[in-house]
Structures are given as structure tokens and as C-alpha cells.
Design a protein that fits this description.
380 residues, alpha/beta, 7-stranded mixed beta barrel, disordered N terminus
């Protein structure tokens, strides 16, 4: 168990990757055993928003920044109702939070929510390993959950893989709810929750949009029951190849020609709805410093990402789809991965990243304004 709520835990902990590599450190957060997909996040700040992002469900997040936890945890920056990561890996956790907004330490919050973590390991070596070998299954073991190495490795290899995982319904709301417009109401948007972050409907509310957040299981009839001016598909976890229901709902929206905006998982859903495939990236894009070019303007944005899958669409031509012409609107400057799609004959577009900037830069906030413009154009 943790020996001090203000100091670094002294309980031994072991991280085991499915290819057999082992890292030894100290328990951080809850003591026990956990499993998931090992991924790394390059953000130097915003760890509370990362932890509470439902897109990280069933993932063990490795922080590349060495010093984590120095601003503690507050009650305002939660992006959902709980921490969703399966495990947390840090090198040098802060001993004492030093922010006036802090209500408790990160270590305490992880322990309170039962999130097993490990500290004191060489996260740079682990990150390099994942970059070379790719994201893979991992287990963290501490305390009484520390069996022999062979047993730990066998348990890791028995854990489910992310490929083929259908997870959005596990993190989405089970009941519809409404986020009212701030100030004068101008539009109504139906937002399909595939793992939505709290700041996303807030960004729309700031623009006079009343947001009706619907469960991932919502039907086309449910979407149009709120009489939307636009439809939004959120971020979320899992393999987009399993998301047949959201794809079907989005196709219903496209058939009606309602303005449509998707982010992250929603971008992959649009890709599939248009007839493109998806594929798993070697180690994904995660963090708040990813460079993306908006090909419609030539502008380069620094953006917040969390995705392990991508859309397989041609970068060099306009594609014919059942809903008219489509093109790649945004591209990652690190590896030329598709980061956005837009239809040329219908009011629909998507991006593969987080424009709500929680946490992250504000470069992409204009995308919410672009969505408003589509709804204004449709109304006119």
C-alpha cells in the first residue's frame, strides 16, 4: 500500500509488455493489477483532462514528460465523470501539488478511483520501445498482485487487444441530456456521444447552440426527434471497424443533408460512412502538440490528439462517394496520416483531433465556427 499521501509510494511495482520486456518501479495510485494497451502521450500539461478523456478507455498511458502531478487534481478540469485510463505510467511524480486550484494530489485521486499505476521507471526507454515495436498489450502489477514473471507475461498475453474492440457504448451516456446555449439560442445540435468530453458541448454552447447529447445507441429517429439544425459525432475509444451502428446513423444524416461535424472517432465514422476503410496505426497520435495542416487554407495548427486508428483515404485526389465528392481536408505533418475529411456536395466535415482544447492548444477552435457557418448556410 502507499505509505504516504504526500510522498512517492514505496511498494514495488512491475510493468510487463506483451513482447516480454519488463520495467521495475514503484506503485503509483492504487495497488493491484491492471491490463490494457500501452500508449504514450507527448503532452507536458493537461494530465487531468487526459485521464478523464473517455477515448483512453482500456489504455495504459505512458507520460513522456518526466515530471507529472505538480498541479495536483481539481474539481473543475474533469472531462467526464471518472478517470478512464486502465493504468498510468510516470517517471518522476510530484511529491507535493503546488497549484492554488489543487484539491488533492494526483496519487490520491488515482488511488481513490482504483487506477493502478507505476512510477520511477525510464519512461523515455519505454516510449522508444513502443515507437519501435508499436502499441501493445501491457500489465502493471504491484503489492500482493506481484506473481512471478512468467505468470505476469501469460496474463498480459491473455488480455483483449484493441483491434476489434467495440467500446463506445461502455463510456457513453445511457440517458439523453441537454447542454443549454449560453446567451441567445441560435441552433439545436444532436450530439451522438461515443465518448464525448465535457468541454465539447460547452464550446458549442458558447456559440449559441443548444446541445442534445444522445447515447451511442441512438437511432436516426432519435437524432431527428430533437429537430436538429446540425448533427455532431464525438470522439471515443475502440476500433472503428466495429462501429456499424454509428456508421448507419451517420449515413442516415448524410442522406438527409443535415449539416454534420465529427471529431476523432467521428472522423473515422465519416470515413466508413463514405466507403473508406480504417487501419490501426503503429503507435498512434497522442498528446497536445501534434502538427496538422488544414489543406483548405494552408494553415498549420498545433493540435490535441488521441487516436490509434486512422482513415484510409487518398490524399492526392477527390473521391466519388455515395454522398457526392469527398476530399482529405487535413493531414498530419509528421506522417501524412489523414486528419480530416470534407464533402464537397453536402454540408459535412470531420477532423481526427480535439478542437475543444481541453487540454491542448486553441488553434483548432475555428472548426466550431465552421460548423456554425454550415448551419447558417443551410438555414438561409
Amino acid at each position: 500500500m502507499t505509505t504516504s499521501t504526500r510522498g512517492v509510494a514505496r511498494t514495488p511495482a512491475v510493468l510487463v509488455l506483451e513482447d516480454g520486456r519488463i520495467f521495475r518501479g514503484r506503485a503509483y495510485g492504487a495497488v493491484g493489477a491492471t491490463f490494457g494497451e500501452a500508449v504514450f502521450s507527448t503532452g507536458m500539461t493537461g494530465y487531468q483532462e487526459t485521464l478523464t478523456d473517455p477515448s483512453y478507455h482500456r489504455q495504459v498511458v505512458v507520460m513522456t514528460a518526466p515530471h507529472v502531478g505538480n498541479t495536483g487534481v481539481n474539481d473543475e478540469d474533469m472531462e467526464s465523470r471518472k478517470i478512464w485510463v486502465s493504468g498510468y505510467v510516470v517517471r518522476d511524480p510530484a511529491r507535493v501539488p503546488s497549484s492554488w486550484r489543487s484539491r488533492r494530489s494526483l496519487d490520491e485521486e488515482l488511488a481513490a478511483q482504483g487506477v493502478v499505476g507505476i512510477s520511477g521507471i525510464d519512461t523515455r526507454a519505454l516510449t522508444r520501445h513502443l515507437r519501435e515495436r508499436g502499441a501493445m498489450r501491457v500489465g502493471i502489477f504491484s503489492g500482493n498482485a506481484l506473481p512471478d514473471e512468467g505468470t505476469m507475461l501469460a496474463e498480459v498475453r491473455q488480455a483483449p487487444e484493441m483491434t476489434g474492440a467495440d467500446l463506445s457504448a461502455e463510456v457513453a451516456t445511457t440517458e439523453p441530456y441537454v447542454v443549454p446555449a449560453i446567451g441567445e439560442k441560435k441552433f439545436t445540435v444532436a450530439a451522438v456521444d461515443l465518448g464525448i468530453k465535457g468541454m465539447t458541448p460547452h464550446r458549442m454552447a458558447e456559440r449559441g447552440i443548444e446541445v442534445h447529447v444522445l447515447p451511442a445507441t441512438a437511432t436516426v429517429d432519435d437524432v431527428y426527434a430533437v429537430q436538429p439544425d446540425g448533427v455532431f459525432f464525438s470522439n471515443g475509444p475502440g476500433d472503428p471497424a466495429t462501429a456499424d451502428h454509428p456508421v448507419s446513423v451517420m449515413q442516415g444524416v448524410l442522406e438527409r443533408g443535415t449539416p454534420l461535424f465529427g471529431i476523432c472517432f467521428g472522423n473515422q465514422i465519416l470515413g466508413r460512412a463514405l466507403g473508406f476503410g480504417t487501419f490501426k496505426l503503429k503507435y498512434g497520435h497522442r498528446g497536445i502538440n501534434q502538427p496538422v495542416q488544414d489543406r483548405t487554407t494552408g494553415k498549420v495548427e498545433v493540435t490535441a490528439h488521441n487516436h490509434g486508428f486512422a482513415v484510409d483515404a487518398p490524399l492526392d485526389k477527390v473521391s466519388e462517394t455515395p454522398y457526392g465528392r469527398a476530399e482529405v481536408s487535413h493531414v498530419c505533418l509528421n506522417d501524412n496520416v489523414v486528419e480530416g475529411l470534407q464533402l464537397l456536395d453536402r454540408p459535412a466535415f470531420s477532423v481526427q483531433y480535439h478542437p475543444e482544447a481541453a487540454a491542448g492548444p486553441h488553434d483548432a477552435a475555428y472548426l466550431f465556427d465552421r460548423f456554425v457557418s454550415l448551419m447558417e448556410g443551410q438555414r438561409a
